[in-house]
Write a structure and sequence with these properties.
The structure is a homodimer.
Chain A: E1 5-7, H1 9-15, H2 21-33, E2 37-38, E3 43-47, E4 53-62, E5 67-75, H3 79-82, E6 87-95, E7 101-105, H4 110-127, E8 135-138, H5 142-155, E9 159-163, H6 167-178, E10 183-186, H7 190-196, E11 199-202, E12 221-224, H8 237-242, E13 245-248, H9 251-254, H10 258-266, E14 274-276, H11 277-282, E15 295-298, H12 303-318
Parallel strand pairs in A: 1-7, 8-9, 8-11, 9-10, 11-12, 12-15, 13-14, 13-15
Antiparallel strand pairs in A: 2-4, 3-4, 4-5, 5-6, 6-7
């Protein structure tokens, strides 16, 4: 009988600081864009009774690697009323030679949040103009916080602006960051964030565009991480049409989900104008080439990120 | 922090005898064919290096139910050389209202084998002619054994014939059943099985048809459980064209996988000639209506079966 290890969130959090998240994401995206990964389309369950919920199944492997991953991540917004996390799920690692279950990371959605933020920070650093004095955050949820934390660290920038639909949430956001040494100012609207920051990260579950093209100044980079389904949308399609560089984590997914899917459908963007992050990481000339360019990174989240973070955590836990 | 229970195979085996498997499958198939289920297409990973392997992800829920299931089942044929099971995997139950992980059934593929055999026995009983004196089994693996065990019990029939590609495996099969009160005779070829039995269950991973239409006598029922992918095939397409009734567990899956997919593609069968098992279970006039008819049940395995068996086991384990 095979043995599988069930790892709790507490155990994961204990080793996670030892993981070089941006480096792991970088290796994963390069392998992905090199065609070394097998990653089928995202599986999806949509629930609506007794409460709305959304479940994503992402899975795949790197050819020649040791393990394949199957990652389940859910969002049930009404959980807030029950006093429990809206995110949940787990990552499971299997032996690539035998199919045996090796490690069950019951991360309750946490590793997904962390790897999403790491990918956002990586994309933002990779595409940012040469000088960033202030980071803009649209949204005030868990992902907005993690994006700011990781991006501020990666860019060595301690000034930020935030806008959220709910002003109480925005106040809490600012207070919570005060102790971390990151000084966050509130903005009354999305436009204010765009006007005060060189890089902006959008982290909402909006179904309507929040960022209008005319508010975006030359030189701005925007990383959009909120939209990971065909319906969610944070950016005006005109902005993608106008941008000098549009990058995605996965072109296969970008055709179907996120900002790029909307812009392709609207006919303002051609697939040939979209570049994968893994290619830019390998060859920086495919990314930003001047400080005047407007650049967009649209991330929908790829299974290779789940594989990289799950394997990193599992390797560290194997010592114990 | 949410708690998830990791259940071992031993714990599952201890409660499984208390589950009325055929009744659970029946309820599941009826719910499925009534349109009460949400079951997305099967997810699939195909591995080939360092060893060939196949992973299926089946998932879904019954509307208004308590849980959704995500089931992972793998087959790695080369495991035999390593002395480990070729099947592996797990079933995971999640709360339908919150997405919380509730029960992790690390069944190593066992529950999938059991529910597949139960569905086969149910389909065979439902479609069999009025008198069955001998059950035919094509194949000698784990699924062939389980099908015979469950079908013999359900039909109250203790005579069987078996054919397998490997005569040593067929001999072991016969010996192993001797103690169980089921008398199994070997047949030198597939034709011999068809000529001696009223019902025949095919349980191989063949890529070429094994059963030819001209060997099938009027009144025969065949349940084909081996083919669950677009490429595997056990029955000559002419047999599906000729059959008086062709039933499937899922028409959505039958379009893409299994015997029906081959026959539809060959143009010898129309989709309108194919009926779902759940509809026959609800209204027997949609099944066999005379003892002279040739009937076929083609089963590719549906997530509702996984949900039914996983929930049954979890409910029994909740007592402890």
């Amino acid at each position: 009988m095979s043995t599988a290890r069930l790892v709790t969130l507490g155990e994961m959090k204990a080793v996670l600081p030892e993981v070089d998240l941006l480096e792991e994401m970088k290796r994963g995206f390069i392998a992905y864009s090199n065609g070394q990964c097998v990653i089928p389309p995202v599986g999806e369950l949509i629930l609506d009774d007794p409460a709305p919920g959304e479940v994503h199944i992402k899975y795949g492997f790197i050819r020649g690697g040791d393990r394949y991953v199957i990652k389940i991540a859910s969002g049930f917004p009404m959980n807030r009323e029950l006093g429990i996390h809206t995110s949940n799920g787990m990552m499971i690692l299997f032996n690539q030679r035998t199919g045996e279950v090796e490690t069950l990371l019951h991360d309750e959605g946490y590793l997904t949040d962390v790897r999403t933020a790491a990918a956002g920070a990586l994309a933002t650093c990779t595409m940012a103009p040469s000088s960033v004095t202030r980071i803009g955050i649209i949204g005030t949820g868990v992902q907005a916080r993690m994006q700011l934390q990781q991006t501020a660290g990666a860019l060595d920038c301690t000034q930020a602006s935030v806008w959220g639909r709910d002003t109480d949430h925005a106040s809490n956001f600012i207070t919570d960051f005060a102790e971390s040494g990151i000084e966050v100012s509130p903005e009354p609207d999305v436009r204010g964030v765009l006007e005060s920051c060189e890089v902006v990260i959008t982290c909402t579950s909006s179904l309507e565009p929040l960022v209008r093209s005319e508010w975006v100044r030359p030189g701005t980079h925007i990383t959009a991480v909120g939209s990971d389904t065909p319906d969610k949308q944070e950016l005006d399609v005109a902005l993608l049409g106008r941008a000098d560089r549009v990058i995605v984590d996965s072109l296969d997914q970008g055709r179907l989900r996120g900002e790029v899917a909307h812009a392709l459908k609207a006919g303002v963007l051609e697939e040939t104008e979209v570049t994968e992050l893994g290619l830019v990481l390998r060859d920086s000339s495919m990314g930003r080439v001047s400080d005047d360019q407007v650049t967009i990174a649209d991330l929908t989240g790829v299974a290779v990120q789940d594989l990289m973070i799950a394997e990193s955590v599992a390797r560290l836990l194997e010592r114990t």
